Amino acid sequence: NAGVTQTPKFQVLKTGQSMTLQCAQDMNHNSMYWYRQDPGMGLRLIYYSASEGTTDKGEVPNGYNVSRLNKREFSLRLESAAPSQTSVYFCASSTWTGFNEQFFGPGTRLTVL
Amino acid sequence: QKEVEQDPGPLSVPEGAIVSLNCTYSNSAFQYFMWYRQYSRKGPELLMYTYSSGNKEDGRFTAQVDKSSKYISLFIRDSQPSDSATYLCAMSPSNNAGNMLTFGGGTRLMVKP
């Protein structure tokens, strides 16, 4: 099992460009999440999908959109990138087995110039 | 003021030392408390979780929760260089599918041989 995979690993954008971050999990998990991590800020939830077909805003959703394409895949789109979106983005997935443990991907490092 | 506060460190200790990592929080609704370990340029991985107050031990790791003081701790006994990482506390009011976690900013730990 690959677990949670994310593409790309690195990306540099210019202000105003758009891009989609891809995430896939092979653990048959129901819930998926997108976080951003900035120095000293910990991880902050952008959007999550509790189950296939549903998405909800997290703590910092402005400037982002998401699509739960199917049970395996959850993408994050930046329509018009801004320097404030320079961050490391993590995707996670979970399923309830007594405890809702979230498994994280390796991250995407995004720089917006 | 952030909901979850964590000293960013870095905390530098000699191999074999006992390490104490701490978080304070302000939201009395938090019931589930987690510690994640994050190696450099990797995604976080769950170390331990506890529900409500009390202690939980797993090998060299002990998690403590004091809800009356809104204070949680992670103790690492006989620390090893392989424990060098950033440790993130996380909390949630529930254990439901799609539950939102609130993270601390992380403490960077360095264990010197």
Helix content of chain A: under 10%
Rg result of chain A: 13 Å
Query: What is the approximate shape of chain B?
Result: globular
Please state the CA-atom Rg of chain B, rounded to the nearest Å. Answer: 14 Å
The total strand number of chain A stands at 11
Number of helices of chain B: 0
Please describe the topology of this protein.
The complex is a heterodimer of chains A (113) and B (113).
Chain A: E1 4-7, E2 10-13, E3 19-25, E4 31-38, E5 42-49, E6 56-57, E7 64-68, E8 74-78, E9 87-94, E10 102-104, E11 108-112
Parallel strand pairs in A: 2-11
Antiparallel strand pairs in A: 1-3, 3-8, 4-5, 4-9, 5-6, 7-8, 9-10, 9-11
Chain B: E1 4-5, E2 11-14, E3 19-25, E4 32-38, E5 45-51, E6 54-58, E7 61-66, E8 71-76, E9 85-92, E10 102-103, E11 107-112
In short:
The complex is a heterodimer of chains A (113) and B (113). Chain A is mainly beta and 113 residues long.
What does this structure look like?
The complex is a heterodimer of chains A (113) and B (113). Chain A is mainly β and 113 residues long. Chain A has strands at 4-7, 10-13, 19-25, 31-38, 42-49, 56-57, 64-68, 74-78, 87-94, 102-104, 108-112. Chain B is mainly β. Chain B contains no helices and eleven strands. Chain B has strands at 4-5, 11-14, 19-25, 32-38, 45-51, 54-58, 61-66, 71-76, 85-92, 102-103, 107-112. In chain B, the strands form two sheets. In chain B, strands 2, 4, 5, 9, 10 and 11 form a six-stranded mixed β-sheet that branches. In chain B, strands 1-3-8-7-6 form a five-stranded antiparallel β-sheet, with no helix packed on it. Classes of the chains: A mainly beta (113), B mainly beta (113). The A-B interface holds A 4, 30-31, 40-45, 48-51, 56, 58-59, 90, 92, 94-96, 99-107 and B 4, 6, 8, 32, 41-46, 49, 88, 90, 95-101, 103-106.
How would you describe this structure in keywords?
heterodimer, A: 113 residues, mainly beta, 7-stranded mixed beta sheet, 4-stranded antiparallel beta sheet, 0% helix, B: 113 residues, 5-stranded antiparallel beta sheet, 11 strands, globular
